[in-house]
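Entry 14. Ran structure prediction on the chain below.
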Amino acid sequence: MQLPTADNPALGSEKWSIGPSFDYEYESKNRKLIAGAIFIQLWSFAGDSNRKDINILLVKPFLYYNIAKNWDLMFIPYGVTVYWDKPSGQKTYVPLGGGIRRVFDISENFDINFSTQFFNNVIRPNNGTINDLRFLLEFVF
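Output, C-alpha cells:
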C-alpha cells in the first residue's frame, strides 16, 4: 500500500494506492553473490480527484558480488519502471549501470556501509532522467 505522504503536491501523487508485490532472493553457497528482485504493481483507489490515477509497475532488482573482504560490486537501481497509462514510447525507464560498496566493521553489532553507483536510463521517456549518480551512507545496527 502506498500512502499520500508528500507535504507538497509537486512531490507526490496525492493518491492512495494498493497492489500486489513479490520478492525473490538468491544467495550463493559461498555467499559471494546475493541477488534478487522485488516486483510491485500499484493502482490508485482514492485521493485527490484532480490528480492523475496511478497504474505503475516497479521491478527493483538488486545484486551484490563480493570481490574482496568488505568490498562488493553492486547493482541496485531505483528500478525498471513502467507507467501503464502513459503514451507508447513514454512508459518505461530501464537503468543500466552499477557501483561499488565498502563495508566498515565498527563493532560486532554495528557496521557503516558507503557506496556509490552510476546509472544511465537506456530506455526512458523523451523528457525523462538520463543519468543517476548516487552516494549512500548506511548505518547498520
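The chain has one domain: 15-140. Will compare against last week's run tomorrow.
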